């Protein structure tokens, strides 16, 4: 099985590293390309047997499973460029939420799917959000879920929930990294602790929380209950969070859905003009 990656930016790069390092795909069975070829060639310095293609069409012609890792507005011309190479036995995969299964199937006749990865997949953890096209065989579904399971926990998501699911699984690391940085900044501003020590303590704390959740020692709710002793210091901090956070996360989802709607309008104008 040959896996192709078109686009070697942040998420394409994560898939390249993760698939090879997890041994899901041998580097000799992977073929990649990028609009700026020099960016793709950098990966060959680490994985010498990795194949670099001179065009997206060559990736589509050679690979059995093709991941498209480009910006949403670049999909339409790219699909028209490669569609003649996409025979029925091939699988084309979008990794971006604004491109729907229907969008892909409106142009190509091969099997299609959407797999939205997360930066957490770089450590072979976190989720990948999977949606299968109508033409996907049961064999293909099993093959894709098995492939994704090397680097993540694959979770099937309906089209109507893809934006919310992406906000949590894919955008979530950025959102909570921002909050943790503000947490560190607050500690440094209000106390004598150094930024270096506050950062180390916060990093170790969040790793510890992840292990507690991973090992089913506590849930998110029981974590709060165990730490927040009635009348204690933690409770005072929780009061501030309750008072000042307000509807911040409702507003986050509102903003991301607004941008998603704008992206969809632009895509519809391209695909269905």
UniProtKB/TrEMBL annotation:
Gene: proC
Naturally occurring in which organism (per UniProt): Bacillus taeanensis
Reactions it catalyzes: L-proline + NAD(+) = (S)-1-pyrroline-5-carboxylate + NADH + 2 H(+); L-proline + NADP(+) = (S)-1-pyrroline-5-carboxylate + NADPH + 2 H(+)
SUPFAM superfamilies attached to this UniProt entry: 6-phosphogluconate dehydrogenase C-terminal domain-like, NAD(P)-binding Rossmann-fold domains
GO biological process, one term: L-proline biosynthetic process
Keywords of the record: Amino-acid biosynthesis, Cytoplasm, NADP, Oxidoreductase, Proline biosynthesis
Pathway: Amino-acid biosynthesis; L-proline biosynthesis; L-proline from L-glutamate 5-semialdehyde: step 1/1
Annotated protein name in UniProt: Pyrroline-5-carboxylate reductase
Binding residues annotated for NADP(+), in chain numbering: 6-11
A Gene Ontology cellular-component term: cytoplasm
